[in-house]
Amino acid sequence: MVSPLAIVLFFFLVLPIVMILVVSFWRATEFSIIPAFEFENYEFLFGSPVTYTVFINTFKYAILTWVFTFLIGFTVAYYLAFHIRTQTWQIALFLLCTIPFWTSNIIRMISWIPFLGRNGIANSTLISWGVIDEPLEWLLFSDFSVVLAFVHIYTLFMVVPIFNTMMRIDKSLIEAARDGGASGAQILWNVILPLTKPGIMIGTIFVVTLVMGDFFTVRIMSGSQSANVGRLISNDISLLQYPSASATAVVLLLTVLITIGILLRFVNIRKEL
Amino acid sequence: MTRYTKRNGLSRRTLLKTGVAAAAGTLAAPMVWAQSNIVLRQAGTGVSAFNEIAAKAFDDLGITMEMTALDSDSVTQRVATQPDSFDIADIEYWICKKVWPTGNLQAMDTSKIANYDKIAGTFRSGKLTPTSEIAQGTAPHTVGFTSGANGTDFVQEESGWMTLIPTIYNADTLGIRPDLIGRPISKWSELLNPEFKGKASILDISSIGIMDMAMVVESMGEYKYPDKGNMTKEEIDLTLGIFTEAKKNGQFRAFWKSFDESVNLMASGEVVIQSMWSPAITAVRSQGIPCVYQPLEEGYRSWGGGMGLAASLEGAKLDAAYEYINWYLSGWVGGFLMRQGYYSAVPETSKLFMSDDEWGFWYEGKESQGDIVSPSGSTLEGPGAVRDGGSFIDRMGAVACWNSVMDENQYMVRKWNEFIAA
After folding, report:
1. φ and ψ at residue A203, rounded to 5 degrees
2. Helix (H) or strand (E) holding B419
3. What chain B residue is nearest to A239 in terms of C-alpha separation?
4. Residues B113 and B247 grouped into a single domain
């Protein structure tokens, strides 16, 4: 008997992906899509220099976001796991981290716009402090604001799995390291970091896949000026170019799968969990 | 989605009253549809999906209108791919050029349209006045008629079968912040003037944006299009090339896709010159921020909207749809829309529903005598104000091009995508 999970996965995961793959070979006109088997969509995709720029952009956002979410996420998790002594406080502070998630992603993102704008709070504060004379233009509608919004939205996806694996580290290992004469930095580097690798990897997969698949944050925070692959797809869809959108989606899917494949070479999550 | 309904029991008396009043007015006696509970689903661009119109339609006709407001691309998508999801499509003429061949809309018999003869010439012969020139682009009359009841083609003469019934239209130009610019602006080319580096914006809807770009390119003296409404691949490359270079030089602060984005960009001072729509100017001004819809030497880029009937409409619902359209053209809606700064397809009926001062200000371009108030009740102008660009004939007579769908549209769309991603 086929297990229920397999049925669910078949209908809601495998089938749609197969559909996308099939449609990616179709042809489109302004108002209709025509079943066919052509490589035209892929030819155009790989033939356009913009595709490469956009994929590089997508990786750039993913890597930058990963660096910052990792640094912040690891620090927060480390603080919660090793500096807060009582479990009650650990849980309380952990819940505090989730509070921003009570509002919608989009609202959290858009609220940056008036803050970072030319006449926004950030610029007027800096000017009144005398730090700058002219408003900083790059605060908004730039790569900076895109990455800022990503970091803001996705850091928690790093905190949770890292915190989780840190909590499982046997405290006696750290005591043993200290008794053996290791410094704080050495303990962090040689004991804690290797043991939290699975958590880091899970967080990384979350952040990288979410950022690579996003289109809305990039559109809003860059003022429609930058594009990642998600935006390329959403533009195609809005212009009824489903086959071309599908082709881009297939390439993106493969790219993300390869990225995750490489990441998993570093850590065997299943073994370490 | 907004929806207006009223319990029938409560409103029957008002229905009768307004029904009688309307019968005594301009229309032939309208049927009152309340008992049969006719519901019509209207999907359209945000510009004309007003609750007030739905409410008034219910009061006057007893038809419940369910209005769905979408952006231009989404409406196109819906009309092309989900023909059963709407009864009336309120779309623009360039969208019509895209979706009409799908057969998802049905032709309208002009003999059933009471005010057909009074519809502005722009939508019938293409000429506003007998002497005016036809602007470039997808001019409404070129996609306004089809060959017969089941036609999926376009014909260039008044065939008696209309694809869309024109509802509203306007002449668009650049919006500016005069307080932040501090000098007169008179040409489209100012959009790419390095003086406004990082403070300009253009809209990210390809069919409309490309026309704004063409106006700018011509104004800069870079190129003179034989027909900017139907560019060749080379012309598309040239146009987008100029703008891609400007984008890379940091000319643009942002691009906008929805009405409110354009309002926010302008009101916050992020942008001082950009493509804009007339009610967006009104929205910025109603925040007390100076904003001008600047008439430019090269003329306007115009657009027109109209209502098309879903192919699946039949029987009582089809009759109700005709009733609704006749009511739409009979004046009240026109007056309502004219007060927002749009033009109505049948201007003369709207006049009956506007005060002389309103008519003078909005249509004739005369100086206002008293306060000019928007339909929502906020004062837009005091006495002594004149509309940007002047009268209807001045503005619509200076249209240089219409929003367009070109033969090379697919190529253009792909290039547009590249421009956004560049």
Report:
1. -60, -40
2. helix B409-421
3. B73
4. no
Decide if pLDDT at B20 tops 80: no
> Which has the minimum average pLDDT: A108-112, A214-218, B7-11, B289-293?
B7-11
* Predicted model pTM: 0.80
Residue B384 resides in a domain: no
Q: Are residues B58 and B198 located together in one domain of the fold?
A: no
Residue B11 has pLDDT above 50, yes or no: no
Q: What is the CATH number of the domain that holds B207?
A: 3.40.190.10
Chain A contact set for B269 (CB, 8 A) = 118-119
Rounded Cα gap, residues B117 and B1, in angstroms = 34
Q: Which domains does chain A have, with CATH numbers?
A: 53-272 (1.10.3720.10)
Which among A30, A114, A231 has CB closest to B410? Answer: A30
Closest residue in A to B252 (Cα–Cα): A225
Q: B78: nearest CA in chain A? A: A240
What is residue B27's predicted lDDT score, i.e. its pLDDT? 44
Residues B197, B165, single domain; the answer is no
Split at pLDDT 50, 70, 90, the class of B87 is very high
A47 vs B: CB within 8 A: no
Supply the ipTM of this predicted assembly: 0.79
> Is residue B218 pLDDT above 80, yes or no?
yes
- CB-closest option in B73, B252, B264 to A239: B73
Domain-embedded: residue B380: no
Least confident among A260-269, B162-171, B176-185: A260-269
Candidates B414, B415, B419, partner chain A, best to mutate (most A CBs within 10 A): B414
Q: Which of B404, B360, B416 is nearest to B385 (CA)?
A: B360
Residue B198 to residue A137, Cβ atoms within 8 A: yes
- Smallest Cα–Cα separation from B99: which of B154, B41, B55? B154
Q: Which of A141, A240, A241 sits opposite B254 (nearest CB)?
A: A141
From chain A, the residues in CB contact with B73 under 8 A are 238-239
Is B197 in the same domain as B230? yes
Residues B247, B116, single domain; the answer is no
Asked if B194 and B336 sit in the same domain, the reply is: no
List of chain B residues whose C-beta atoms are within 8 Å of the C-beta of residue A30: 98, 405, 409-410
Q: Is residue B377 part of a domain?
A: no
Q: From CA B304, how far away is CA B164, in angstroms rounded?
A: 10
State mean pLDDT over B176-180.
95
pLDDT for A97 equals 87
For residue B69, pLDDT over 90 is answered with no
Query: In whole angstroms, how large is the CA radius of gyration of chain A?
Result: 23
Q: Is A225 on the interface with B (CB under 8 A)?
A: yes
- In this predicted structure, the answer to whether residue B2 has a pLDDT above a threshold of 50 is no
Nearest-by-Cβ selection for A119 from B74, B268, B414: B268
Of B198, B409, B420, the CB nearest to A30: B409
Verify that B26 and B127 share a domain, yes or no. yes
B187 and B39 together in one domain: no
Domain hosting B42: range is 2-170+302-354
Q: How many domains does chain B have?
A: 2
Q: DSSP letters of chain A?
A: ---HHHHHHIIIIIHHHHHHHHHTTSEE-SS-EE-----HHHHHHHH-HHHHHHHHHHHHHHHHHHHHHHHHHHHHHHIIIII--SHHHHHHHHHHHHGGGGS-HHHHHHTHHHHHSTTSHHHHHHHHTTS-SS--GGGSSSHHHHHHHHHHHHHHHHHHHHHHHHHHS-HHHHHHHHHTT--HHHHIIIIIHHHTHHHHHHHHHHHHHHHHH--HHHHHHTTT----HHHHHHHHHHTT-HHHHHHHHHHHHHHHHHHHHHHHHH--HHHH-
A225 contacts B254? CB cut-off 8 A: yes
